[in-house]
Amino acid sequence: MGTIKIIDVAREAGVSTATVSRVLNSHANVDPVLAGRVREAADKLGYRPNGIARSLRRQSTDVIALIISDVGNPFFTAITRGVEDIAQKTGYSVLLCNADEDSSKEATYLAVAEQSQVAGVILSPHQAGTDVSALSRASIPLVVIDRPLSEAMDSVMVHSRDGARAATNHLIDAGWKRPACITGPEEAATAQERLEGYFQAVREHGNLDELYVHAPFRQHGGLEGAARLLDSDNPPDALFVANAQMALGVLQEVKRRNLRIGVDIGIISFDDAPWAQFVSPPMSVVAQPAYDIGAQAAQLLLQRVGGSAPIEPRHIFLSTTLIVRESSRRHSA
Amino acid sequence: MGTIKIIDVAREAGVSTATVSRVLNSHANVDPVLAGRVREAADKLGYRPNGIARSLRRQSTDVIALIISDVGNPFFTAITRGVEDIAQKTGYSVLLCNADEDSSKEATYLAVAEQSQVAGVILSPHQAGTDVSALSRASIPLVVIDRPLSEAMDSVMVHSRDGARAATNHLIDAGWKRPACITGPEEAATAQERLEGYFQAVREHGNLDELYVHAPFRQHGGLEGAARLLDSDNPPDALFVANAQMALGVLQEVKRRNLRIGVDIGIISFDDAPWAQFVSPPMSVVAQPAYDIGAQAAQLLLQRVGGSAPIEPRHIFLSTTLIVRESSRRHSA
DNA sequence: ATGAAAGCGCTAACAG
DNA sequence: CTGTTAGCGCTTTCAT
Lengths: 333, 333
Prior knowledge:
Largest sheet of chain A: 6 strands, parallel
Structural class of chain A: alpha/beta
Shape of chain A: elongated
Radius of gyration of chain A: 26 Å
Oligomer: homodimer
Number of strands of chain A: 12
CATH superfamily of the largest domain in chain A: Response regulator
Mean pLDDT of chain A: 95
CATH architecture of the largest domain in chain A: 3-Layer(aba) Sandwich
């Protein structure tokens, strides 16, 4: 049973393929009678349009690709919702690609996006150097989120550095004496920015050591980072952690060492994960407006797709919010 | 600057398009010299294959679609990793689609999958009645996960009922007198199964009331479910919660009411989310082998895609693991 | 081993 | 308002 194509419908309805195409795409100027016959025929035969052929001909599709760094990170899934909500309103489907903090997977998805001629892509680049030239050559609009790209592009970013600085300052104000920073891998711009924010705060307070480690943006990264820091000669008494997944690892290691959070050690992390207020003690965090990042990025992208956007790249910056809960407070033992 | 196509490369290299195609697809029997010229030309012109055209001609693609019920649910993101790891090994890309517990979004993605002729799809159907006939008509292999479909299909499922029964029994054995169940929406088979498991346990113990509510598989669902149950005349003293996101909502409501977990109320939930051991007190759970579900599903699918699968649908059943932590233990006040 | 040429299924000029 | 037809860019027989 070969698939039914437009010509089969045409024959069944006694019209030309052009007419079939017209009614199926609800073009104007089609005799209602013929239209009826066509729809009937299509129904009867169970005709299903071939999207590939259509795309090839039209040179366009109505899907956008969202390439995120890690599906396991609630920050990115929240972004996803923002993108989906906006895209759906406009009739676009969003295909999610999990680059998994891996440049080669990212490159694969970028290639898939390019070769399947998606209408546009939203990307959180693994590194600033990520090569997106294929997209521009194919004139596929791109908006960059979370991490900047060396090339100028529409983007929506967060003032990570300020958030990190605020977090660290909060730790110091709360009475902790040796705050340290567990940040992401060196190649990640957000990791650097958060580290810089930490540096700023520490320097503002003078005579404080700069204590930090780089580690993967994952639970095990947080665990390892905490272990390294805590094993050092003059260990920190407070930790600023660069993302929620790492924070879980930190919790794990802190628990293993039987350290009392709020007494032996203070903790604050980036990202207000759904669980943050339920861990013990409730985790203080620097919340990012994840949903908005997604929504705004989608808006920017859809404007470009629709052609209603200026030539120059636009940059949107969003701010973080410091949410103080318990893990960062200091109580004497 | 029109896009470079295969014929441009052919001209540049002084060969036919057929030859270009052959070297680019590393077919055998190509003169190394010509092959070199072709590659050089392609490089020089910056040729990028058009995947759409290729797919149209080949009538196939190398991407599989994974349609999940909710990206925000760590259970599904863990499945995603399993699928990705297997797919990648075989050279397939996986496109993730978030149906968001919504039949119409699900239908949209099913249509996208069909029309873009993905090699196969892995789906966690929103309802048993989800219409996948379009896929079969297009002979796109499908494997169903998590929730069954009325049609016979390759599937990988979990013995939810047994897990639920074990969880409830554990609650009873721990000394709780009025265990209740907060399960998902009625249309979700997993919600029903978990409820049935709860019923089984309760009935095995005789003279226990059957206390339960249906609610969305989300945090707010858990919150609302807990509120309704706790507001009833003769409220439960223990809660079996049907998924991790709901459990967060339960925690929220329980906290709001200042109920002491382990004293005033016992809790156990489905799914061992990354945060489960860090909430206060550590959450007892029924763990599902999420990664394996994904990996096995991908294996099943890839066999069909490769044609190396029997005609009859295969069904894989995986078991849950009861992990007792603190939230389900009972201490006198 | 290479090239010519026929489409894959659809849409959009262009004619009528 | 409808039909004819020329491709979209690529792969793959079929000849040579």
